[in-house]
Amino acid sequence: MRIQVVNPNTSAAMTETIGRAAAAIAGPGVEVRTTCPSMGPASIESHYDEALSVPGLLAEIASAPADGYVIACFGDPGLEAAREFADGPVIGIAEAAMRTAACLGRGFSVVTTLDRTRGRAWDLAHRYGVAGFCRGVSACDVPVLEVEAAVDAVAAACRTAVAADRSDVVVLGCAGMTAQRAEIERRVGVPVVDGVQAAVLQVESLVRMGLRTSAAGEFAPPPPKPYSGPLEPFTTT
Amino acid sequence: MRIQVVNPNTSAAMTETIGRAAAAIAGPGVEVRTTCPSMGPASIESHYDEALSVPGLLAEIASAPADGYVIACFGDPGLEAAREFADGPVIGIAEAAMRTAACLGRGFSVVTTLDRTRGRAWDLAHRYGVAGFCRGVSACDVPVLEVEAAVDAVAAACRTAVAADRSDVVVLGCAGMTAQRAEIERRVGVPVVDGVQAAVLQVESLVRMGLRTSAAGEFAPPPPKPYSGPLEPFTTT
Amino acid sequence: MRIQVVNPNTSAAMTETIGRAAAAIAGPGVEVRTTCPSMGPASIESHYDEALSVPGLLAEIASAPADGYVIACFGDPGLEAAREFADGPVIGIAEAAMRTAACLGRGFSVVTTLDRTRGRAWDLAHRYGVAGFCRGVSACDVPVLEVEAAVDAVAAACRTAVAADRSDVVVLGCAGMTAQRAEIERRVGVPVVDGVQAAVLQVESLVRMGLRTSAAGEFAPPPPKPYSGPLEPFTTT
Amino acid sequence: MRIQVVNPNTSAAMTETIGRAAAAIAGPGVEVRTTCPSMGPASIESHYDEALSVPGLLAEIASAPADGYVIACFGDPGLEAAREFADGPVIGIAEAAMRTAACLGRGFSVVTTLDRTRGRAWDLAHRYGVAGFCRGVSACDVPVLEVEAAVDAVAAACRTAVAADRSDVVVLGCAGMTAQRAEIERRVGVPVVDGVQAAVLQVESLVRMGLRTSAAGEFAPPPPKPYSGPLEPFTTT
Amino acid sequence: MRIQVVNPNTSAAMTETIGRAAAAIAGPGVEVRTTCPSMGPASIESHYDEALSVPGLLAEIASAPADGYVIACFGDPGLEAAREFADGPVIGIAEAAMRTAACLGRGFSVVTTLDRTRGRAWDLAHRYGVAGFCRGVSACDVPVLEVEAAVDAVAAACRTAVAADRSDVVVLGCAGMTAQRAEIERRVGVPVVDGVQAAVLQVESLVRMGLRTSAAGEFAPPPPKPYSGPLEPFTTT
Amino acid sequence: MRIQVVNPNTSAAMTETIGRAAAAIAGPGVEVRTTCPSMGPASIESHYDEALSVPGLLAEIASAPADGYVIACFGDPGLEAAREFADGPVIGIAEAAMRTAACLGRGFSVVTTLDRTRGRAWDLAHRYGVAGFCRGVSACDVPVLEVEAAVDAVAAACRTAVAADRSDVVVLGCAGMTAQRAEIERRVGVPVVDGVQAAVLQVESLVRMGLRTSAAGEFAPPPPKPYSGPLEPFTTT
């Protein structure tokens, strides 16, 4: 079984961190390949960045046939588009993390990077039906590309959030926090969920069950369509 | 006052139709300019198309300073990204049409083009808070680029929807139906709302009131960021 | 085009203030006429006042044929009744203000007059589908007829609300605040929406599009009915 | 204990029917007095009628001191206004009937008179928090003042509704159906709830427990206020 | 008329307190019998306790034919199971208390015993459709079997909750608080609802109206089934 | 790693079927042990059966230390109680199946055994936050203990449901259908999710990530408590 993990920003360092975490959690016999696009934003910290990360992300998925795919950015960019044409199931890390957290307690707190990304996290909580479990979304105020080195700031924000939200579980709101899971759990004292790991295992589970996105309706392959300009390579046939 | 209407697909014919409808409804002293991107899909009929229309759409908005902007595709692609950096307020036609319809009766029916776009319309109804007014979303099963010439099929689908949904109002679910509003209203016998017109007037109203997207938090301009590859022109500073 | 704005309380001074704001925002060629009833409460500060303002409001609408109507009290009293028999579309200022604010940010704060009116504002937020955008409703604790002169208190309450609710936009929760919009926006630093202006422009837009309340079902003219006692003039035929 | 039941329309015959049902269900030692206003609509079949029934209803409540009050029209007109100033608890028959039905099964069907009143019933189901129990609202298409004599039509509509909605319980959607409860239950075969009876017993229960509307905030007595014109008698001091 | 009140824990003292309150509120001619099971937990303070109280509770209901039943624990354990086979209507005290409170103001506060029971109270508020009225659930941090003697702690928690939640009404969140209702109301100054009383009167009202759980579908008697082990007595035929 | 799967009814045959499916899907190195209680109902087809299955289920979990637990009945009986005291994470098959299905399409259909169990499935869909994905719940009208042999009836019900609900995915609504997944998928043509497999893999994933139910609040071990009668063995210390 091969799982393709795509970090939708163009940071090689962050891609490597994600790749290590993903490979470490996958089951025996599962090959994990982690890549990032050659086009798009260096990091994703706004709706603008998120929207513009999608072409690169889709290009990565199209070029790397696998049994299943993970989108490793907490905004889950391009998830629905990817589901229409990917060869296997596609899971976003926010989706996997928040649904996992909902099995572990009455309510969870999400801790993201910049304050402006909080709205997107709430939108996703509503989309995935877990808003009733989400007690709060807060930010550690560290930019995405610096978050890996900022375990103290992240842990502090998690501790504050658990107390303020009276929550039972923490959800790490950025792929760049993936290596900090165990340490933060140790410091905060409640279960801490990392979406990269959760998504890899969710994809692995789906593949093992022989399940993938339904092609019966909305997520059937996109109708053939010419694309023009720099996006011409996206033409579907 | 100048309003920029962007048709996010690359069809010149459809852009012209939209432009005529937009210009016709705008108030005295309002200049309406309607354009479409040079890159992206010929029409938008999937999540894939919608995601890939966004770079072209954003490029259009960035290159054409105006007092306010309309996104003229019923999926409202790129709406949140556009709000972060546009010079004035931005309104999507689904947003404008569905909110307008909610003022005119107990419930409305949306009629879209292809069946697979129904899910997106429901998502937007939820996002804009009008799901309680939305009695149903149905499709006329005509592709986007043929819908302008298919008034009979659209009207028939509207009539069927109003009866099945027991609704009071129809919302046209594609910018390509804009020229059919009056004719369909005549045939169906209930108010019919066209999002292109509704969005132009909503933007005009906002500009007249001196209102634009709040820059206080989530929709502040995106943080400076290098972009690479074919998307390098989107670099923010 | 003629738009009739009805202030449902009997205060002439407040009617004049509303009239000035309404006339100032209307487009070229739009005649705005603002009136108030000769019967009913001097101001509306309870469910009791609101219920008892409706006969006077409906009498005003019935006696003044126009292309569209605005109900200029933030409780939107009598809105559904007015829609059943008015000659054109009818918009309440809470409806217009809250829907407008929902286009300008992630969340808005409503600031009303007396604390006891907060519940009604929440009810309307739910009715119009914008409760998800409404971050809070607070009161400036100034009675309706004194609010026009109390810009400092209103502005202070708005500033406090924006901070406490972490909201992006302010909605003025009383028609008597209409003249303060620009000044409060200047002081608070986020977009401030006034429902009088928003409703006038919404009605103007509907009329321009040829749209009015659907008469297909619930909002058809009321069945003929004898009325007795002091309400006999409301008999429908 | 004295309970005042107010039929908010001016029909003496219907008031008598309601009065008989109310008196029959009240417990030993409970005096039930049923009246109707001298002003207002002959029956309530629209938002217009409902709004205009409120002054007469409030006048009845103000002039007849009692331990508790029932508003005997399925639209529950004036409920919140009445709660602000009545001497004891106030219950609407839709409120009582729908909350009672929610204790008796998974879902109930409401059967009203005219089709145009269906929207109001849904609004109340949402307001009272029982929309999740409400499987459907349908109409028997008999005007309010003829419904008492139309048991066959009402029963037929109830039978159809239970089958179509797959519901367990019927709620009678008009005070004029009160005398038909047992007969319809016999014919339809599921529990049938009449709001007049349910509301009388709910008020009796509240009075026995010493409970009435909280005066702590929103429902405190309305602030003193001059009223003018024919509504001058409503002036509060 | 005979009403059976079941305290689902095995505490005789608490059963006696509940029995006194229940008998005191019932109408003339209503016999109230209050019992507790011989098997199960001494008190109910966790999901574990609640689940394991159900066999004893159901045995009590099965062995004591009555016209209606009250489940006198604020978690409403076994309510749906009891409705399937009881001879008459069954009401839980959380259900009765929260629905009663929703008639008395804009919002209520629930005050429970241990903090860990708060989640269950919220679940029930959602199930009964009153979550929109529930402004908060807080705990007085007194174990169930000590709460009767702890009126000061309960009253203090109620006062704090009303202020923090800005609510109009208090709901007592444990059957053991039933004797404290009047005293707490006196101290806190807003209506205080006790579920034991509310549930007895709700059952009495249902019986008087001739209403009981619908046997039309989900709540029909359970299909015949052999039970084994210590639960063999529950075998249905 | 050891996973304990508990079939909460006492049928040995059904337990064996479940055990085969569970063992077949578990990853390398995972030992799956499947048992059923010695006390309780032969099958679970009512709220009564479900409530009375819980003591046996909890006894099984208490007596078989493992790294994680699956509750293999689509009503997820005793899930919250089990989470309070089990040594590792606990997942119900309805929870796992419905959350898995929500990743595979816009909407799913649940197909259960008897019609009367439909309400419970909807309750769980709401509890887990997936009601927005659940397009319908229907029954194949085959009793639980006969469903394994009734693949034709189950498949027919699934086909009908997918067409009627316009759904993309099927969720098998009984553990007894576990062996039919692939065959039904073949016949119906959309992804079919079996909760037994999904739950085993969900538990395996949680264990691999080092995650278990939060003991921070509501799901901490139950307070020490004496139990009496036949339930005395459940005493906690």
* Count of structural domains of chain A: 2
Helix content range of chain A:
40-55%
User: Which outline of chain A best applies?
Assistant: globular
* Biggest protein-protein contact in the assembly: A-B, 51 and 51 residues
Structural class of chain A: alpha/beta
What is CATH's topology name of the largest domain in chain A? Rossmann fold
Q: What is the name of the CATH class of the largest domain in chain A?
A: Alpha Beta
Nearest-angstrom radius of gyration of chain A? 17 Å
Report the CATH architecture of the largest domain in chain A.
3-Layer(aba) Sandwich
- Percentage of β-strand residues of chain A: 15-25%
Give a nutshell description of this structure:
6 copies of one chain form a homohexamer. By secondary structure, chain A is α/β, with parallel strands linked by helices. The first copy, chain A, contains 8 helices and 10 strands.
Overall description:
Six copies of one chain form a homohexamer. Chain A has 237 residues and is α/β, with parallel strands linked by helices. Chain A folds into two domains: 2-93 and 197-234, 3-Layer(aba) Sandwich (Rossmann fold); 95-194, Rossmann fold, CATH 3.40.50. Chain A is built from eight helices and ten strands. In chain A, the strands form two sheets. In chain A, strands 2-1-4-5 form a four-stranded parallel β-sheet, sandwiched between helices. A four-stranded parallel β-sheet of chain A has the order 7-6-8-9, sandwiched between helices. In chain A, helix 7 (181-188) links the parallel strand 8 and strand 9. The relative contact order of chain A is 0.17. The model of chain A has no long low-confidence stretch (mean pLDDT 97). Chains in contact: A-B, A-F, B-C, C-D, D-E, E-F. Chains A and B meet through strand 3, helix 2, helix 3, helix 5 and strand 10 of A and strand 3, helix 2, helix 3, helix 5 and strand 10 of B. Strand 3 of chain A pairs antiparallel with strand 10 of chain B. Chains A, B, C, D, E, F: It comes from Lentzea waywayandensis. Chains A, B, C, D, E, F: One of its GO terms (molecular function) is amino-acid racemase activity.
